[in-house]
Amino acid sequence: MSDDTIRLVTIGRMLRRRWRLLAVLTVVGALVGYGTSLVFPPRYTTSASVLLPGQWEERELLTQAEIAASSAVVDRAAAALGPEVSGTELRDRVSAKAADGNIIKISGTADTPEGAQRLSDQVAQQFVAFASRLAGDTTDPEAAAGPETLRKLVVQTGRRITDMAEAADPGQTVESVQGRTELEKLRTALQEAMKKLDQADPAANKANMVVMGPAARPTGESAPTRTQLIAAGALLFFLSAVIGHLAAARVSRRLRTEPEIAAALGSMLLGTVDVPGERPAHRPEGRGPRAWIRWLLGLDTRWDVPAPQPSGGEAGRQIRYRRVFARLRDQLPAPGRLLVVVPDGDEIARRAAGQLVAEAESDPTPSSSRRGNPVLRVVGVSVSRPLVPDRGTESGALVVLSAGSWTAGELAGIAGACADAGHEVVGIVVAGPVRARPTRSPGQPPDEAAPALAARGHATGGSV
Fold it and tell me: Polysaccharide chain length determinant N-terminal domain: which residues (predicted)?
């Protein structure tokens, strides 16, 4: 697992090198969202408001909201709407909540704006009728007429008391004053009792609910709309691809440092060399539809490899290759033939191996104790099933590879294949890409002179 911190530059590099794959996955996500919108048809939602006059506590309003969305009200609304809908179906499409100002908002959802409006209005009407029935508006007529009769009787009694007070002795005697005072107290007590009766009577105050007009016809779909589903699908696939790339890079077990690579192969590191980066090919390597798809999506190049550093110049690259080759000569007891083992698919290592072969053929100054330079032969080895040619005239194997491309298990497999073929790994060379300097015009002199190499491509050296 890599311990490198994921930085913005890493995300930017991934977006630059995987933009085609991310674009394709984003389009796929948008298509999935569009398909989901076809499976789930659009819905429209509107609300009808019911006013509850009088004094209501919060818990009472919540109770009324529960009643408005109960099966008793919804089933009556379904029966009024017709046989094409059922109460069970409507229960999931009707909701109610208590709002400020003693208002119950009843919301209905349907496949069309007209259906949502009709559903909300019908449920509101059925709620008012049901609440009135509960409060006693439609109960026994005699019981409903009782409070009104009592009010009339109180009014008549008050008038009778007034008449009695006026007919009493108008004198200022103690008895007359006490009589008028008692009559006035009696009338006041009757009026207060009637007020309390009105406040306690639910049929007088709380049953007179009012539907505050018809529900407004919705002009747009309720969430999630088709546009929202398409955008959500595209965003989900894009973020999943980005997170997947970052997670894969985080758990990557590819070896990035020279000591780790040397330990996995069980040999000594001779040095590191740099290879100038080349423009990506305009056509994929290999044949078949899979190669074309990988090329189109940008999967044929690594995205988690840092951008190449600027090259130090051709002369510096040649010096570093000579130093690596000199160390290789010092490792050999005598000049002979060596296999240069390169993992398949490692283009940077393959070009570095070609440069080493060219250096071996062009070096005119072998060590005085040597009769000649070793002869190098490059062979490609599959990391999935490594197989190295049996030992013949070769006296060992030189492994050339790029950093950050292979795991410890894959490198151990290459070392084991070399051992099975009778080759001793005499050294390791790590290659890395660099950015070549711009090509000079013919009239400009070079900054530094260096002998030309008969190589397959320019190769540059890193730190040795």
Answer: 4-69
